[in-house]
Design a protein that fits this description.
Number of strands of chain A: 10
Oligomer: homodimer
Mean pLDDT of chain A: 90
Strand content of chain A: 15-25%
Largest sheet of chain A: 7 strands, mixed
Order of helices and strands of chain A: HEHEHEHEHEEEEEHHEH
Low-confidence stretches of chain A: none
CATH class of the largest domain in chain A: Alpha Beta
CATH superfamily of the largest domain in chain A: Spore Coat Polysaccharide Biosynthesis Protein SpsA, Chain A
Largest interface: A-B, 41 and 41 residues
Helix content of chain A: 25-40%
């Protein structure tokens, strides 16, 4: 009886493997869009749990590659061990921040290192990809990654609990969910790009079209616009709205 | 050519379905251990993102049932909508806390409502199960659920960043990873149960053996011991150590 069960188990496994091979052949992976998530990180007591949360979330997303850049002279064992245990495809980099403590901007050198890695490791035009900057102290609903996966040049959506407000982000015209007409933002709403780092993603091809586009340490609270203006957007109004015409602001 | 691809796709699907049916038959679901996670929750601006984080984590755990109990007179749309979108198997309950603001304990009525639901909705002895109390403001590594899944009566493991310390929890004897000899705890280390709510889980059968076991509003900072002593443990030394003899304290 036990050996009969074993034979059935082997058959079941064979059938599954055969089926999966068929599906794999048919799914044409060259069409898949990879989401490259760039995450600067630095040591503090909550670093590990924050990274665990991100790993859990990203584990639920298909075709994702996580680029984690430490703010440190050398890569630490903490992050290296964490990434080796996290099942998400990842790249581990490090880059130091400027020593000058007058800088009130964090993460620029790390995000630039992430973009540089993409420029050096992706073959331009061979792989459809999206770049997203996800800081390690935010919460992400896994569904947002499917919202950004089909963008043409760049997309935006509202985010919750930011800038002292329960939400911030794009607003579309009534009856025109594909056209952004304005933004709700607590901080400097008249900026050309009044959006948070977590509120936009861009086509990876733009990194090659604009090979010098980068973050800096000059434009306080305007790093989003600093990058987006360098990759060809005149204002955030040109971004493609997501989350059902920017309407799916979470009830929070 | 297109129709040939379609035929192949149908075959692939059929093979997968057949394989899965075999696996389902062979896996004997009666042996599966369900982890019942009891989570009290209350409204504040970060409630929704905290719940999203938990949903993401629990999505990675097999055989889990999430009992979410709101501290409210009625169930709110926020939590109801959230649970309807979260793919984790769940039950939505509500229970109010005492009005008296002198109580410095939170969550007891909600955790008791969760246990009551289990006593009323599980057929005693028919389903192997584990009960775990997971607050909505903590971070959980999904691997901890497999650590607790095979417990006999109750198990414990170290947790990070609690009670003002980078970690707290059980310590085993050198060379004896299955025997707890002490605990590291910042707050009242001489308590019989010097462990955090997130540091233990018990066999669901204990809820039937001890049908009156419950949390209260009297024993400040000692709710863990209040419950564990009522379900038959004399001290936390009797719990089964997990996480490789309590040694896997995360590097944080």
């Amino acid at each position: 009886m036990r050996s009969a069960v074993k034979v059935k188990a082997v058959w079941a496994l064979l059938l599954i493997i055969l089926g999966l091979i068929f599906v794999r052949i048919l799914s044409r992976p060259s069409d898949a869009v990879t989401i490259y998530v760039i995450t600067p990180t630095f040591y503090r007591i909550t670093q590990k749990p924050e990274l665990v949360r991100l790993c859990n979330t990203f584990s639920l997303v298909e075709n994702i590659h996580w680029i984690v850049i430490e703010d440190s002279v050398n890569k630490t064992d903490l992050v290296a061990n964490f990434l080796s245990e996290c099942k998400v495809s990842s790249t581990h980099l490090n880059a130091v921040s400027p020593k000058d403590k007058n800088y009130h901007i964090k993460g620029s050198n790390q995000r630039n290192a992430g973009m540089q890695w993409l420029r050096e490791n992706i073959v331009k035009g061979q792989q459809r990809g999206v770049v997203y900057f996800a800081d390690d102290d935010n919460t992400y609903d896994p569904r947002i990654f499917n919202e950004m996966r089909n963008l043409r040049q760049g997309a935006t959506w509202p985010v919750g609990i930011v800038g002292g407000s329960s939400w911030e982000g794009c607003i579309t015209a009534p009856g025109e969910p594909s056209r952004i007409v304005g933004f709700w933002a607590g901080y400097k709403p008249r900026r050309s790009f009044p959006i948070d780092m977590a509120a936009f993603a861009i086509n990876v091809d733009l990194l090659f079209t604009y090979p010098n586009a980068s973050f800096d340490y000059k434009h306080v609270e305007q790093q989003e616009g600093t990058l987006l203006s360098q990759v060809g957007f005149k204002s955030a109004l040109e971004l493609e709205p997501r989350a059902n015409g920017c309407s799916k602001v979470s009830q929070i």
